[in-house]
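Section 5.1 Outputs to date
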Amino acid sequence: MAQVLLALAGNQNSGKTTLFNALTGSNQHVGNFPGVTVEKKVGIMKDYKDAALVDLPGIYSLSPYTSEEIVTRDFILQEHPDVIINIVDATNLERNLYLSLQLMELQVPMVIALNMMDEVKKSGNSIDVEGLSKRLGIAVVPISAAHKNGIGDLVRVVKQMVKHPSELPHCDFCKGEVHRAIHAIAHIIEDHAQDSPYPLRFAATKLVEGDALMRQALNLHEDDVHIIEEIVTSMERSLDTDREAALADMRYSYIEEVCRESVHKVNESYGQLRSERIDRLLTHKYAAIPIFIGIMVLIFYLTFSLFGAYLQEGMEQIITVFCEWLAQVMAQYAISPWLSSLILDGICVGVGSVLSFLPIIVILFFFLSLLEDSGYMARVAFVMDQLLRRIGLSGRSFVPMLIGFGCSVPAIMATRTLSSERDRELTILLTPFMSCSAKLPIYGMITAAFFPKHAALVLISVYLLGIVVAILSALLLKHTVFQGDSMPFVMELPAYRIPAFRSVLLHMWEKAKDFLHRAFTVIFVASILIWFLQSFDWQLHYVQDSAQSILASCGSALANLLAPLGFADWRIATALVSGISAKESVVSTLSVLIGGGEMELSAALATMLTPLSAYAFLSFTVLYMPCIAAFATTRKELGSWRGALFTAAYQTLSAYVVALAIYQIGSLWF
């Protein structure tokens, strides 16, 4: 059990993940911070076995605007790490030191890991590391996390700081009116700060900033609050600016002084110059979106057609061979029919159909990891921000929605990157409207039966339908349930870099592991439940004809509700219910209930549906609640059953209304 607790903090795109992997190797696990859905990584240091390193979310400040910022400061103040390792991008020192000054105010022993020093030298620039350390009053260690240079020196300094924890960062970098305001407020709140986990200087600075959470945590009297506001107002009047700008100016003025003495800059960094040249094309006013569409079309082609199709087929064959072998073993030992059916028709079919998508998930995240680690995804969010802001979201919401065309589960998980809880919840609700790959078998079944000559046109219209409903829902919900504006989109565009292969592989492994965990937990249980309902009647007699099962009787009751949509057959209603376990189950359930091959299935569907009701059925399957795995992920990410149930109810109600409108209005002409 580690006895030393270390915290790794820094800006996004500063190389934090690369440094974390270099320090911990594979000795890490992933979870969530208590009470929130922000992901954390914890690892045991390779060269310091007594120390556990917590990778805090990438942030730009300690202002309580995002869940990541709140998590970072609460973790440091409540968990009391022995040392903070603050990773700083040496090629953009002025911007990165802004967070460093705020971390210093937390009065925890801290070391700055000055990353990407190889790029600084490559550009012909230099940094006086010793001078920088003296000016800041804390240890500064030059490193290159990608090449693992300086990692040993960093670990050695951390060990020394753990042994001699008395050396705390000094915070003497304020002056003028801001200096007077901070010290005047510190005098007022001194008694309150002593009874709280917050250092006096940090608490005073946050009150100058107008931090409501700090005011509440200190339990200040109304008279004290009034005096503090008078002090801040006087400062604003004297400086002719607002409180937040005054603090920012104070910090950046100090940073400029430090950098002027410590940084010798001859040229822009090689990475920045290269990025500026690339961005002339990739963020071009007119070319950016077409280029992005082209890149994503290529990724989806490689994922779902070229590589993914063969690997998925191979996985299906492995699963089929295993199930056939299992069937032979059970037949050899004369296993009872109901148990054999449970294992083969329930567990193997349910879990196996989902496992077959594992290669696609891994390949998709391989390409997305390359785009993210290279710095391109930050540009995509920047380009899409203006379009999404019109419907109440920010550019960051675009990436999860894009992933949703592959699978809703990783798409919902990807909303963790969103800064605003409002934006995050709204994006989680809208993402399942993006038609996931698991629905493709349904589209193939319906188009083959009813629209064989216009299959491409029908598929395009179905995908567009999901996008249109998502846009209309966003416009509706931003004025009702999710009132308010989306968070300001502030993102530093990092320099383009070649992704670290090890980091990409670790990302793929984490996603694969999470996917397998769901397959053998949530989907495993759901498959058993569906099999049970399909195999027994209300007297719990095992039935040979599924039309006599519990599932059939429930489907018959549901069929009456679906009759206005044009599909009143109990088998279709039953298939939609089974689709909650996995969308592929819609096709498999209909195949089991109808019997026969593809021709028999198409013929039977023609007796149950018309072309109009078939399109209404397609519309419903696109929009109604996603599979149980996506629902479970929604529950986990939102942190409540209430939010997850509301999301599922809204999606299903939207599906009902759209399908109803298509069938009833279409019936007037067809």
